[in-house]
Automatic annotation (TrEMBL):
PANTHER family: L-THREONINE 3-DEHYDROGENASE, L-THREONINE 3-DEHYDROGENASE, MITOCHONDRIAL. This is NAD-dependent epimerase/dehydratase domain-containing protein. It comes from Loxostege sticticalis (Beet webworm moth). SUPFAM superfamilies: NAD(P)-binding Rossmann-fold domains. InterPro entries: Epimerase_deHydtase, NAD(P)-bd_dom_sf, NAD(P)_epim/dehydratase.
Amino acid sequence: MLLRNFYRTAVRCNVRYYSGNLANNKPPKILITGGLGQLGVECAKYLRNKYGRENVLLSDIIKPSEEIVNDGPYLFVDILDFKGLQKIVVDHRVDWLIHFSALLSAIGEQNVPLAVRVNIEGMHNVIELAKQYRLRVFVPSTIGAFGPDSPRNPTPNVTIQRPRTIYGVSKVHAELLGEYYYYKFGLDFRCLRFPGVISSDPPGGGTTDYAIAIFHDMFRKGQYQCYLKPDTRLPMMHVKDALRALSEYLEVPNERLTRRVYNVTSMSFTPEELAEAMSKYVPEMRITYQPDSRQEIADSWPQVFDDSEARRDWNWKPEVDLDQLVRLMVKEVKEKIAANGF
Ligand SMILES: NC(=O)c1ccc[n+]([C@@H]2O[C@H](COP(=O)([O-])OP(=O)(O)OC[C@H]3O[C@@H](n4cnc5c(N)ncnc54)[C@H](O)[C@@H]3O)[C@@H](O)[C@H]2O)c1
């Protein structure tokens, strides 16, 4: 016990050496990889408001729209190119890395070799880079890091993890690798397991995407055909809560963290319950159900996520409930359709 405490203290002291510039009141320089997906663009907006436009570098391998370029610094960064990553970190004096590049659950099953490269080899590059340049590194994990052997209601922070998708396997790999680098080298690795994140931006091919697509289809076609059964319960969160969780967690002093990987969530609902909550705002809506291969994935995932450890260690608390989520989505999706037709 004594030895363990000594070891933990030693690792924590070492970790301070890795942390960004907040101690000298200078905002950190942040690089976001895979930044043109569902979460990256919103994340850059959120962090630019907090730390300044020039301090948040958005990156991806996709050609950006004019709007993205006008919003702030944007760079080409391929997560599989280690030298390219080193150059960006050195040239821009990066302190924190937010690693979003990934192939999500449904897309990953369609191209396993590519998912192995992007999700696993990409993670090897990121972790080595973070070690070499002493970066604070944030890697999101997911409810998909659990599988049919895990308790599903509720799913605690530490339990059996035997996922059956390449996406889930790669996220367990990332969690374990990050923890290992923390214990071995004092790397300031931070990871949150997000539930399905809901925003008005187009989703990236995950199993919880229905909860976004339903809003878009309702306003464009007046109906939605759901690929999950009506009673499929999954944990979910509005993007506002997800980004606040990410941002708050990145600033927590290492001394307060008892883990490097935390579950976070806001709520759990089924397609039927979401449709019911939406009917208040869209009374004419129609929903039908035609389950596909994503049903099997959803049936192996947590139904209710236990985030009590995040609440205890760094006061995590969600703010957006189901009714507020629906209200926000109705407003934002209507605005998006009016502005650019998607
Ligand atoms: N969206 C969610 O509901 C959710 C839930 C839990 C965890 N997460 C995690 O959050 C992160 C971001 O999710 P998202 O929904 O924005 O994903 P997304 O699929 O929308 O975006 C991923 C991005 O990665 C980029 N990418 C692919 N290959 C790349 C490469 N070789 N180099 C650099 N970039 C590359 C893609 O171009 C894409 O823009 C992912 O790691 C995901 O696992 C998301």
